[in-house]
Amino acid sequence: MWKQVRKYRAIYFMMIPVLLYFIVFSYYPLGLGVVQSLQTDVLIGTPEFAGVRNYVALFGDPQFWEAFGNSLIMGIGTQALVIPLALLFALGLNEISNRFIKSAIQTTSYLPNLFSWTVVGGMWITILSTNGLVNGFTSIFGANSVQFMAERNLAQFIMILTASWKALGYYALLFLAAIISIDTSVFEAAQIDGASRLRQLFSISVPALYPTLKIVVLLGVMGLLRNFDQVFVMENSMILDKVNTLLLYIYTNGITHFRVGLATAAATIVLIATLLITFVVRKLIRYDESY
Amino acid sequence: MMIKRPNRLPKNSLSPALLIINCVLLFIVFVIMFVPMLYVLALSFSTNLGSMSSGIRLWPDKFTVIGYIEVWNRVQLWRPFFNSVFVTTVGILIEIFLSAMSAYVLIQKELPFKKMMTSIILITMMIPGNLTLISTYYLNKQIGLLNTYTGLILNGLISGFSILVIRGYFLSVPDSLAESARIDSAGEVTVFMRIYLPLSIPGIVTVAFLEFVDKWNSLMIPVSITTDQNKFTLPVILRSLVFNDSGESGMNYITPNVIMAAIVISVVPLIAFYVFSQRFLKTGMNLGAVKG
After folding, report:
1. In chain B, what residues touch A163 (CB-CB under 8 Å)?
2. Do B131 and A133 touch (CB under 8 A)?
3. What is the pLDDT confidence band of residue A288, given thresholds at 50, 70 and 90?
4. Distance from C-alpha of A203 to C-alpha of A113, rounded to nearest angstrom
5. Integer Cα distance of A86 and A209 in angstroms
6. Is the dihedral of CA B58, B62, B65, B70 positive or negative?
7. With an 8 Å Cβ cutoff, is A122 touching chain B?
8. β-strand partners of A49
9. More confident position, A222 or A230
10. Residue B20: its pLDDT value, please?
11. pLDDT for the residue B245
């Protein structure tokens, strides 16, 4: 075996930079985070071992639970809205025979997925402002102008809608790719047997999309507790407690207020929660079973 | 010779009523997706006063580039713009080169420790990068990367995802090509540079595009590790422009046309790269499905 290793000497050298990078920028921060979560906060000098004190403080912080709840509501809300919509959108788009119209709709809906949240957030903050597009539209019907971004009751709903707006085209693209790969002879056979096109869609296309659906659901679940960019851009003091997410909580405590122990404890809990939720959902949707 | 079917099936499509409903629904989706973008474009070419007035305005009140001039000079968007261009370009070049190199290692047959090295890469894909934000900040502090271009480039430089995708493309390169080169006494570096890299251009462009989007839009790490205004990237400066804490005073009020101009400037490179890579993306886009 060592003979083999010597033979591949040059090859191993090519691997060194990447392995080194991952050790320093992935594994080291992961370990450091766990260590920091068990230490006291000091601005100067060496931190001391604090046991689980940070975790106790974390679990006693109502803001943490609020952020946990908000993350779940907005995350699940977005997935529940965008996945069925994208599925219908892809099915509908596939029925369009005009190539140009089809690709125009598809490209337009895909573009927002490329934009950063600073772009999409800035866009919607302006659209929802008192002089914005939505108020311009509702004023036709004589409605009074509303400052949507300051409406506490609408805050979470706005986050769900804008996140769905951004993700719709991307999800639809994934579904569309799966629809196109279905063998056309299956549809022909169904047609000969007298199935209507609508019936074909729901009895052939939709079941054929299950594997894609599983991937999309799993991706959504893994990102569930990781919402940062959107709320970091779109929050304001009026609605902060309604849209504060776990990552924003970690950022505010760790970077702004230097409460490193509390922030890293929260990060560790979120990491464990994400792995747990992912594991449970994997089992629930039977992700690992082959079709 | 073609054999013509005696009885062709009628066109397999929805009934006319359903087709109309479908078209109407798709049109509504199109409007919802398109109008916000058109609105941004229209506002960015409006006058300061025109962009502040209310109503539905999907066309500039008076076509002007005043917003672009203001955002470039007064807000000095040029600096974060070129910071972003520099950091993203250098980052992509290094990432693609290093990823391709390690992908080449992972396609070697009978290489000892290959499984171990593959799992080291796979596990990094399971660690949600942004959860290690705080410790990443301290790592950067320890090795002196705060407020440096090096820090902006190095954090999040390589993704296990791109290594695996490039590896997939390398696997489709026929072995015999590499074998014949080796018989002609070509070294490993030559085989990698002269055979594998050129033959995997479509895959590499695909990965470069997906990574470009990620790096260009990156907000969380840059906002945490930079406090020096000269090192701000586009998303950081854009966030401070659009961030609205309803306490804005008349003094430094930035009119919507200026903000929208900044938004348009920051998405132009994305759209340009998207258009350029379109022909390569036809095969590559599905790969985005497994990005975790």
Report:
1. none
2. no
3. low
4. 30
5. 12
6. negative
7. yes
8. A39
9. A230
10. 92
11. 56
Q: What is the pLDDT of residue B101?
A: 93
Task: Collapse the DSSP code of B116 into the 3-class scheme (helix H, G, I; strand E, B; otherwise coil) and give the result.
Answer: helix
- Reported pTM: 0.90
Cα-based angle A238, A242, A244 (whole degrees, multiple of 5): 100
Q: Which stretches of A99-154 are DSSP H helices?
A: 99-114, 117-127, 133-138
Architecture of domain B78-290: Orthogonal Bundle (1.10)
- For an interface test with B, the pick among A96, A100, A107, A123 (most B C-beta atoms closer than 10 Å) comes out as A123
- Given CB atoms, is A105 within the 8 Å cutoff of chain B? yes
Closest CA of chain B from A219, distance in Å: 6
* A248 and B CB contact within 8 Å: no
At A64, the pLDDT band (50, 70, 90 cuts) reads very high
Q: Are A111 and B38 in contact (CB under 8 A)?
A: no
B34 and chain A: CB distance < 8 Å anywhere? Answer: yes
Mean pLDDT within A122-141: 89
Q: What is the DSSP letter of B255?
A: P
Beta bridge partner(s), residue B134:
none
Domains and CATH numbers, chain A: 54-284 (1.10.3720.10)
Burial class of residue B201, CB neighbours in 10 A (0-12, 13-18, 19+)? exposed
CATH 1.10.3720.10 boundaries in chain B: 78-290
Residues 6+ apart with CB under 8 A from A95: A197, B13, B14, B19, B22
Instruction: Check B26 against A92: CB less than 8 A apart.
Output: yes
- Within an 8 Å CB–CB cutoff, is residue B284 touching chain A? no
How far is residue B259's CA from residue A70's CA, in Å, rounded to a whole number?
29
Separation of alpha carbons B268 and B49, rounded Å:
25
pLDDT of residue B289: 42
User: DSSP character for B112?
Assistant: T
Q: In angstroms, rounded to a whole number, what is the distance separating the alpha carbons of residues B258 and B235?
A: 15
A109 touches chain B (CB under 8 A): yes
Chain B interface, mutation test: which of A4, A25, A127, A152, most B Cβ atoms within 10 Å? A25
Positions of chain B with pLDDT lower than 50, given as ranges: 247-251, 284-292
Q: Which two tokens stand for residue A152?
A: 């506490």
Identify which of B51, B24, B48, B28 has the alpha carbon closest to the alpha carbon of residue B39.
B51
Is B254 at the interface with chain A, CB within 8 A?
Answer: no
Residue with tokens 């499509």: B13
pLDDT tens sequence across B234-289:
999 999 888 765 544 444 578 888 999 999 999 999 999 998 887 775 554 444 44
pLDDT, residue B290, reads: 42
B235: chain A residues, CB-CB within 8 Å: 116, 118
Asked whether the CA dihedral B17, B21, B26, B27 is positive or negative, the reply is positive
Global ipTM: 0.89
